[in-house]
Amino acid sequence: MTPDDIRAAFIEDLIAVAPDIDPDALEDDAHMQDDLGLDSMDFLNLVSALHQRFGLPIPEADYPELATTARALRYLEKALAG
Q1: What is the rounded radius of gyration, in angstroms, for the C-alpha atoms of the chain?
Q2: Total domains, the chain
Q3: Which terminus, N or C, of the chain has the lesser number of Cβ atoms within 10 Å?
Q4: Residue 45 has what pLDDT?
Q5: Interatomic CA distance for residues 45 and 4, integer angstroms
């Protein structure tokens, strides 16, 4: 899976959880909760969606790695690379 594929899948899952987010205006350093307005349940739904899509375990200790779009993409790329 290419980085572009991972980004597209991540944004698709993010928009499914928070449909009011404009994917074209999504900045890489936008914080999921502080800037994008995800509440804790939205964030957990995003984690669950990513887990289901990619088949990756995402332990609670790793949640800070999903705090921004850029960090989440780096985390997913690294995890998918093995």
Answers
A1: 11
A2: 1
A3: C
A4: 97
A5: 22
C-alpha closest to that of 11 among 26, 31, 1, 29: 26
Spell out the SS3 assignment of the chain: CCHHHHHHHHHHHHHHHCCCCCHHHCCCCCECCCCCCCCHHHHHHHHHHHHHHHCCCCCHHHHHHHCEHHHHHHHHHHHHHC
* Residue ranges making up the domain that contains 58: 3-81
Look up residue 39 and give its two tokens: 């509440």
- The tokens 């205006």 sit on which residue? 25
Query: Domain with 63 in it: what CATH number?
Result: 1.10.1200.10
For 2-56, write each residue's pLDDT tens digit.
Answer: 999 999 999 999 999 999 999 999 999 999 999 999 999 999 999 999 999 999 9
**CA 34 to chain CA mean position, Å:** 14
